[in-house]
Design a protein that fits this description.
The chain is an alpha/beta fold and 285 residues long. Helix content is 41%, strand content 14%. The protein has 2 domains: 5-131 and 177-284, LmbE-like (Rossmann fold, 3-Layer(aba) Sandwich); 136-174. The chain has helices spanning 19-23, 25-30, 51-55, 61-76, 100-115, 142-171, 180-199, 225-235, 247-254; strands spanning 10-14, 35-38, 82-85, 121-125, 208-213, 239-244, 276-284. Strands 3-2-1-4-5-7-6 form a 7-stranded mixed sheet. The chain starts with 9 loop residues before the first strand and ends with a strand. Bound molecules: zinc ion. Zinc ion is lined by residues 15-16, 19, 179, 182.
Length: 285
C-alpha cells in the first residue's frame, strides 16, 4: 500500500537548534506534521563562557541556550511541526567524553516516539564536511612543483596547483570539518534503531525508514558522498533524493537563527545557498 506523506509519522532529528532548518527544510515542507527533535539543547550547570557563544553576542551558555531556544521557537511558530528538545550538551560545553547516559536519554526518546509511530520515518544528518583524517599533509615547496612539471607536463601541473590551492583553503581555516555532534547523533540513532529491530523483529512498527539529510553548510566544503558510502557499507544501498527548495523561503527560515549566522552570513546568499537539498533513504531492517 502506498502511504501518502501526510499519513505517516516523521521525526527529524537535529543535533543543534538550526540543523533541521538549514539541512532538511524540504523534508519539513513535504511532511508538515513532522516532529523536530533537537538533541543537544541543554545548558551546562553551572553556566560556562565559550568563545563561539561570545562571538555570537552571548554572555555565557545560559544566555546562548535560551536565545537559541527562542530563535528555534520563532522559526517554527505558525507551523504544525511539534518541537521537542533533549537536555544534552553540545560538544563545546562538554568537559569530558560523552557518556552512555547521553545515549540512554536519546534512546528513551526514540523508543517513546517509535512506540506510537505509524509508518515511521526517522531523518538524521548524513555527516557532510571534511573528515579530519583527509586533511592532507603540507604541500611540497617550489622545487617540487618544478619537478612535477618536468615529470607530468603542464596539464598535470595545473591539477597539482589546484590541489595546492585546495590544500591552502583547507588549512587556513575556511574548511568546514565534519561536525562531531552530527556524527554522534547519527550513529547513536542508528545503533538504537538496529538494536530495537534486532530485539523485537516481529513487533509491528519495527520496520523503520531512515533518511540522511546532507548537512548544510558543511556540504560547501565537502558533500556527503563519502559519508553515504560508509553508511551504505553498513546499511546496504541507499536511494538518493533531491528536492528543490525555494531559496527565499529557506533563507527566511534560516534567518531566524541569526545568532549563528554571525560567523559567516554568506551561507544564506544567492549563489551560495543551494537550490535543492539532497538526502538518502533506506528501510531498516
Ligand atoms: Zn549542527
Amino acid at each position: 500500500m502506498q502511504v501518502t506523506p501526510s499519513a505517516r509519522d516523521v521525526l527529524v532529528v537535529a543535533p543543534h537548534p538550526d540543523d533541521a532548518a538549514y539541512s532538511a527544510s524540504a523534508v519539513l515542507a513535504e511532511h508538515p506534521h513532522a516532529t523536530v527533535l533537537t538533541v543537544l539543547a541543554g545548558a551546562p550547570s553551572p553556566p560556562v563562557v565559550r568563545s563561539w557563544d561570545q562571538q555570537c553576542g552571548f554572555r555565557d551558555s545560559d544566555h546562548a541556550v535560551e536565545a537559541r531556544r527562542q530563535e528555534d521557537d520563532a522559526a517554527f511558530a505558525g507551523t504544525q511541526h511539534a518541537l521537542r528538545r533533549l537536555p544534552l550538551l553540545e560538544a563545546p560545553y562538554l568537559t569530558g567524553p560523552r557518556t552512555a547516559q547521553d545515549a540512554a536519554v536519546l534512546d528513551a526518546e526514540l523508543e517513546a516516539w517509535l512506540s506510537a509511530a505509524h509508518e515511521p520515518l526517522v531523518c538524521m544528518p548524513a555527516g557532510a564536511g571534511v573528515p579530519f583524517r583527509t586533511i592532507p599533509a603540507p604541500p611540497p615547496g617550489r622545487r617540487w612543483t618544478r619537478v612535477v612539471k618536468r615529470i607530468v607536463g603542464a596539464p598535470g601541473k595545473k591539477l597539482f596547483d589546484a590541489a595546492r590551492r585546495r590544500h591552502r583553503n583547507l588549512t587556513v581555516g575556511s574548511a568546514r570539518t565534519v561536525n562531531g555532534d552530527h556524527l554522534w547523533v547519527r550513529d547513536t540513532v542508528l545503533d538504537h534503531l538496529e538494536h530495537l529491530i534486532r530485539a523485537t523483529p516481529e513487533a509491528p512498527g519495527r520496520t523503520v525508514e531512515v533518511e540522511f539529510y546532507e548537512d548544510y553548510p558543511y556540504l560547501l566544503s565537502q558533500d556527503a558522498t563519502g559519508a553515504v558510502e560508509e553508511l551504505s557499507a553498513r546499511l546496504g544501498p541507499l536511494d538518493e533524493r533531491v528536492r528543490a527548495v525555494d531559496t527565499a523561503v529557506k533563507r527566511a527560515l534560516m534567518e531566524h537563527y541569526r545568532s549563528q549566522l554571525v560567523g559567516d552570513s554568506s551561507i544564506v546568499d544567492d549563489g551560495v545557498l543551494p537550490p535543492s537539498e539532497r538526502s538518502w533513504t533506506v528501510r531498516l531492517p
